[in-house]
Design a protein that fits this description.
11 helices, 269 residues, alpha/beta, 2-enoyl-CoA Hydratase, Chain A, domain 1, globular
C-alpha cells in the first residue's frame, strides 16, 4: 500500500527519478501513510547511486492540499499535538536534509502542509495557475515547520501567515516562493530539464554545496525556529479556540467546514 501512495519513476536516460504523490481523490492530502511512504521513498533515493536528483509532484489537480482533515479526532491536548507536529516536522526534515537535490513541480494546489512540503524541497517550479498559501490560519491552525521566513522575505511571510490568502504561481515567483513559474503544459518539461542538469553535475559538488547551505540555515537558527514553532502550534491547537475548530471537523463534513471557514472572507479575497 505504501508503494502505491508514492509512484516512483526513474528516467531512462539520466540519473533522476520522479516521485508522484498518489492520493488524487484527496488532492494528495497528507496522512500518516502518505507521509511515511514519502519518507521511505526519499531515504531509498538518497541511498541509490543511480538517483542524483528527484522531482516531486502530485497526481491529479494538486501538488498537495495539506494535511488530511478527515477521518481523525484532532481534539488533542498539548502533549498529543506536540507529538503529532513533531512527527510531521521530522518527516519533512528528512526531505530537507536529503543529500540529493529535490525539485518541487507544483501543479495545482500547494496549501498549508503541502506548501511546507514544497518549501522543504531545494528548488521549485510552479504552474502559472497553481494556487499556493497557508489558509489554515483561518481555522486556528499553523504550519508544522515554519519554512516561510526561511524562503521569502519576512513581509511576504507575515502576509501569507496572517491572511490565509492564496497566490498564483506568477505571484509566487515574484516573491521568490518558487524559482520560476511556467505555463502548466510545460511544467514537467521544465522540471525534467532542470533534473537532467542536476543529474549531470558532479554529484559530490551538489552534495557538499547542499550540506553547506543547510548548515548556514542551521547556524542561523532554523532548528530552534522549528522547535519553537512546534510548541506555539501545539498550544494554539490545544487552546479553547483551536479545540472549537477541531471539534467542528467532527460535526461537519469537510466541505461544510471549509464553507464555514471561508464565509467571513468572501467579500475580501
Amino acid at each position: 500500500m505504501k508503494q502505491d501512495l508514492v509512484l516512483v519513476e526513474k528516467d531512462e536516460k539520466d540519473a533522476f527519478a520522479t516521485f508522484t504523490l498518489n492520493r488524487p481523490d484527496k488532492m494528495n492530502a497528507m496522512n500518516n501513510a502518505l507521509s511515511d511512504a514519502l519518507d521511505d521513498a526519499i531515504r531509498s533515493a538518497s541511498a541509490d547511486p543511480d538517483i542524483r536528483a528527484v522531482i516531486l509532484t502530485g497526481a491529479g489537480r494538486a501538488f498537495s492540499a495539506g494535511y488530511d482533515l478527515e477521518g481523525e479526532d484532532f481534539e488533542l491536548d498539548v502533549e498529543g499535538w506536540r507529538d503529532d507536529i513533531s512527527a510531521n516536522a521530522t518527516r519533512l526534515r528528512t526531505l530537507w536534509n536529503a543529500p540529493i537535490p529535490v525539485i518541487a513541480a507544483v501543479n495545482g494546489y500547494a496549501l498549508a502542509g503541502g506548501l511546507e512540503l514544497m518549501m522543504c524541497c531545494d528548488l521549485a517550479i510552479a504552474a502559472e495557475d497553481a494556487q499556493l498559501g497557508e489558509p489554515e490560519v483561518r481555522h486556528v491552525s499553523a504550519p508544522p515547520t515554519l519554512m516561510l521566513p526561511w524562503t521569502v522575505p519576512m513581509r511576504h511571510a507575515r502576509w501569507l501567515m496572517y491572511t490565509g490568502d492564496m497566490i498564483d504561481g506568477r505571484e509566487a515567483e515574484r516573491i521568490h516562493l518558487v524559482n520560476k513559474a511556467v505555463p502548466g503544459d510545460r511544467l514537467m518539461e521544465e522540471c525534467r530539464r532542470l533534473a537532467r542538469k542536476l543529474a549531470r553535475m558532479p554529484q559530490p559538488a551538489i552534495k557538499f554545496a547542499k550540506a553547506a547551505l543547510n548548515h548556514h540555515q542551521e547556524t542561523s537558527g532554523m532548528t530552534s525556529s522549528w522547535a519553537y514553532n512546534v510548541e506555539t502550534t501545539a498550544s494554539l491547537h490545544a487552546g479553547e479556540s483551536g479545540r472549537h475548530w477541531m471539534r467542528m471537523l467532527k460535526e461537519h463534513s469537510l466541505k461544510e467546514f471549509l464553507e464555514i471557514r471561508e464565509a467571513p472572507f468572501k467579500d475580501l479575497d
